[in-house]
Amino acid sequence: MKKLLPILLIFSLLLAACATEKSTNQNKEYKIGILLSDTGLGDESFNDSAFRGLEKARGELGILFDYKEAPDGNFEKPLEELVKENNDLVIGLGFSAQEALEKTAKKYPDQQFLLIDAVSELDNVVSLTFKEHEGSFLVGMLAAMTSKTDKLGFIGGVDVSVIHHFENGFVQGAKHFNPKIEILTAYAGTFGDAALGEKMAEKQIAEGADFIYPAAGFTGFGALKKAEEKGVLAGGVDSDQYFVAENAVAASMLKNIDVAVFNMAKELTEKGKIEASSYVLGLAENGVGLSEIRVISLTEEQKAALKKATEDIIAGKITVKSE
């Protein structure tokens, strides 16, 4: 019995230490700072979704948060400001922030950063990416189901890897349903020009496309409005963009950045830090998905085809290539 007492004492002390640490984490007021991507708040897509996630974390988890924008393209200055404001986590939203975020992360090795939409190898940077190609596959199927011309249009913002995910998934999904369908593709070179998006969509529609899928930020906003004006269908991205063009947006590829950001905030409050070095979220992880289908009515067979494709992607029976 005497030998057992020291062991029990050590075990009790360990339990008490764990309980104290958990209690400390729960009582601490955590702060998160985010640098929004190029187009800033009001894009009704990428930035607004991340912002909603932080608003939910503030309401449900009690976190404090601040945000910065960099319309001049100088990402380093606002990132450094967020570090100096003593945020527990600093988020860089979008692949365009990677270079500046990594430079800042090297300067402040004790600060934890989260990079969304790109992958970093730095120890103090957590990477969060999405399988946009899986969600876009479903939009492509939907577009092919509704097309009367057998021509679809894809408009990308900047010609980079993450936008290729949207394009490639869309093309594969469309051809999965109709192997003979044609997809017109164009890149704007910017995420911030709605007028250019309108012109590009108008050109594709004139060439016969009767469904436009823009993965192009505010440039895509213009494309959706033009699709509505011309009486063709469209697919939204990142958030449910139905209310951008209510007579055109049949469905949106949901990139659940709000859910992911909230979950990162929750892990921070529960554990004191984000433990994994990277996260990749697809259909199986509820990272991407298809919004409610509006404007159009699908047959029972078409609904079943979309449901089966979703299940097959999650089960690994359908492999959607990102590149």
UniProtKB/TrEMBL annotation:
What is the topology of this protein in the membrane according to its UniProt annotation?
Answer: Lipid-anchor
**Compartment(s):** Cell membrane
> What GO CC terms are in its UniProt record?
plasma membrane
Q: Which UniProt keywords apply?
A: Cell membrane, Lipoprotein, Membrane, Signal
- Domain ABC transporter substrate-binding protein PnrA-like positions: 36-314
Work out whether the entry's keyword set contains Cell membrane.
yes
Membrane spanning stretches: none
- The signal peptide stretch is 1-19
Q: What is this protein called?
A: ABC transporter substrate-binding protein
